[in-house]
Design the sequence.
């Protein structure tokens, strides 16, 4: 078994991992290693051929591939080791990583710091409580996207999409442009899950109907999908008898949510957040285990890739401080309170250990509100206030506060 | 006085911007919170534009499809014709991100470039 020693190991070479690697290199970390299970870097960005990435970071609307390419090109000029086609099997508390690839076989990597950047995966049909037979033609949106955009296959002729999150909306447009008839997008909730931009540019532009408070309740077909049954749902999201309707289609695309991929982190007994389904992190995006950091969708599902890469950079700066001893992860930290209409906040904890000029928080609201202010209170004193015309659960909010005392912080949304 | 509401898509703020057509045929906006919102709504009203993002066939590459993007938005009404051109394109790996794929597509004055790098497979 080949043995390798590094200062920082990054698990995952998608936007959070790539941004973390660039920042770690800028901060002078010597031996940096990215472990990526795919045959190329960039992760899901490579199949997101649509534009809309990078508005905050680059003030430009880039495609997913262009966004990834910027970081990949930046890495070429830096001494960062990259192992592609490499699957991480296990991470130990002693910071040993066991990984495997076809060229080198089993690897044992001893590292001083780790950034968990494994991203997320899609909810499947059974997780969306779709019962019935299991014919071909029921795919997650990401799988359909991969077939169409990377591999060049059309997975069907007539499609229905379940879920109005951004991925579902993007796929409605993409399939329409490739000649697949999209009969409609069904959403179990009473409001759309995706950004307004995508409702306008992906559905309205192509006259694709959006059915709110309706869901797919059964799929039919022996070998290949022949039709599905949809029904209106009540306030408890249960089908209303008598509202069932059959729709003929040979493709059902599921865009029913993402789950942080924490199989590797779970074995480390990290403190997890039940709301985000990711590890609890502090101001440096360090987890409950000293020297283990988390960034991107493995920590919480983000809506903008710019937030994902930003979180990677914060984690990388944390790792650099852990390596030079200014950060130990042993000092006390306090939890951030999610106040009025705030569903969750990441990071969940504040620490003043280590050097931080500012602290960045990401949050999602519970329900839509108009004409509000996002406010942060430290010791009951308002230290941050920003007006928002409208806040909605699908659109993550962020706030940057100047680092102060590690006193309890409360973040909430208030009506102006 | 005619008016029409547009949802601004420049940033996630999603401002609801109303374009008002005055009797002297001049246009004004309300509801936008920044200059970009005004520009967006007026453009949607008079000449809606969209970016083109699609894929073209690649031979000898690590993957069989190359994602491509327009250098700027094209008029929405030319979108279909532009895509028709792209369906017929076949490029050969290696491709470097930014490579010119189609110059001045459908006489829009806009180029189509490679979104990414594709090595030889």
Sequence:
């Amino acid at each position: 078994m080949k043995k390798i020693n590094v200062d920082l190991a990054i698990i995952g070479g998608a936007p959070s991992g790539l941004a973390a690697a660039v920042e770690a290199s800028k901060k002078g970390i010597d031996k940096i290693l990215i472990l990526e299970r795919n045959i190329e870097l960039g992760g899901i960005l490579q199949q997101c051929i649509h534009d809309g990435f990078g508005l905050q970071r680059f003030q430009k609307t880039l495609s997913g591939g262009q966004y990834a390419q910027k970081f990949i090109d930046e890495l070429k000029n830096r001494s960062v080791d990259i192992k592609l086609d490499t699957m991480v099997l296990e991470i130990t508390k002693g910071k040993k990583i066991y990984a495997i690839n076809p060229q080198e076989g089993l690897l044992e990597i001893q590292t001083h710091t780790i950034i968990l950047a494994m991203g997320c995966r899609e909810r499947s049909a059974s997780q969306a409580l779709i019962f019935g037979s299991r014919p071909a033609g029921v795919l997650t949106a990401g799988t359909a996207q991969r077939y169409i955009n990377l591999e060049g296959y059309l997975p069907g002729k007539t499609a229905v999409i379940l879920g109005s999150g951004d991925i579902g909306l993007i796929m409605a447009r993409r399939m329409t442009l490739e000649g697949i008839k999209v009969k409609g997008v069904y959403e179990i909730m009473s409001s759309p899950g995706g950004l307004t931009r995508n409702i306008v540019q992906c559905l309205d532009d192509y006259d694709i109907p959006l059915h709110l408070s309706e869901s797919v309740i059964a799929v039919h077909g022996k070998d290949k999908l022949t039709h599905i049954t949809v029904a209106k749902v009540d306030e408890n999201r249960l089908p209303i008898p008598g509202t069932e309707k059959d729709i003929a289609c040979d493709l059902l695309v599921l865009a029913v949510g993402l789950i942080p991929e924490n199989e590797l982190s779970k074995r480390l007994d990290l403190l997890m957040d039940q709301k985000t389904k990711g590890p609890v992190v502090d101001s440096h995006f360090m987890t409950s285990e000293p020297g283990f950091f988390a960034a991107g969708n493995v920590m919480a599902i983000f809506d903008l890739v710019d937030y994902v890469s930003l979180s990677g950079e914060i984690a990388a700066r944390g790792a650099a401080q852990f390596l030079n001893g200014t950060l130990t992860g042993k000092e006390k930290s306090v939890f951030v309170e999610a106040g009025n209409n705030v569903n969750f906040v990441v990071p969940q904890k504040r620490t003043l250990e280590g050097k931080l000029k500012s602290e960045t928080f990401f949050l999602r609201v519970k329900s839509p509100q108009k004409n509000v202010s996002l406010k942060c209170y430290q010791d009951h004193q308002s230290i941050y206030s920003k007006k928002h015309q409208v806040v909605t659960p699908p659109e993550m909010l962020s706030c940057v506060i100047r680092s102060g005392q590690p006193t309890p912080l409360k973040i909430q949304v208030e009506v102006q | 006085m005619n008016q029409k509401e547009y949802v601004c898509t420049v940033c996630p703020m999603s401002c609801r911007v109303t374009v008002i057509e005055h009797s002297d045929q001049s246009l004004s906006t309300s509801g936008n919170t920044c200059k970009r919102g005004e520009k967006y709504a007026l453009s949607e009203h008079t000449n809606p534009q969209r970016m083109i993002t699609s894929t073209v066939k690649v031979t000898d590459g690590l993957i069989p499809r190359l994602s491509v993007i327009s250098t700027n938005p094209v008029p929405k009404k030319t979108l279909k014709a532009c895509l028709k051109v792209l369906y017929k394109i076949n490029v050969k790996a290696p491709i470097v991100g930014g490579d010119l794929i189609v110059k001045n597509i459908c006489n829009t004055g806009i180029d189509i470039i490679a979104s990414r790098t594709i090595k030889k497979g």
